[in-house]
Known about the structure:
Blueprint: E1 4-8, H1 14-28, E2 33-37, E3 51-55, E4 58-59, E5 63-64, H2 66-76, E6 84-90, H3 102-113, E7 117-119, E8 122-123, E9 135-136, E10 139-140, E11 143-145, H4 151-169
Parallel strand pairs: 1-2, 1-3, 3-6, 6-7, 6-11
Antiparallel strand pairs: 4-5, 8-10, 9-10
Helix pairs in contact: 1-4
Amino acid sequence: MEKIGMFWGSTTGNQEEAAKYLMDYMKSEGFEVDSFDIKSTPPEKMLDYTNLIIGCPTWNVGELQEDWEAIFNDYQGLDFSGKTAAFFGCGDQVGYSDNFLDAIGMLAKPFIEKGGNLIGRWSTEGYEFDGSVALDGDEFLGLGLDNDNQEEETEERLIIWAELIRDEFK
Ligand SMILES: Cc1cc2nc3c(=O)[nH]c(=O)nc-3n(C[C@H](O)[C@H](O)[C@H](O)COP(=O)(O)O)c2cc1C
């Protein structure tokens, strides 16, 4: 099994907590996972890994979390051919219904355009919102978490999604 590189950013801790949970789960499943806060990691570090997990909450009405925002130009310039990645993000479907989880789409789309293989699409069932850049048909391009309104769902969503990407990474 290839080692996984997990890259995340977090302003108020929700995405960080989810990343930790996911890392522990993947390790318990026998994967080796290196975890990086994008705040203190050059984006080219992603190119050291074939398998990636990328986590970004949406902030400021349809924007990337600030640390992703700071490196977004460099990120868009990376060549992702030969890479497989799964995306996950925190958002708020009630407060920001028109921009729910936009950051997942804002990072996943350039990844696909630059040759990457995206895994870990996630059903929109169980969420209520009006619009999202993360949508591809009736699915999100990655796992959506909403600790502001559905915190009780987060752990189960993480486990189901982790099992899904575990099988797709293998
Ligand atoms: C000022 C502000 C703007 C936000 N904008 C959005 C948004 O556009 N879309 C969304 O889905 N969530 C939005 N959120 C919700 C955050 O994504 C959510 O609280 C998330 O869990 C924060 O993750 P973090 O704790 O890892 O920083 C916003 C929250 C705040 C406080």
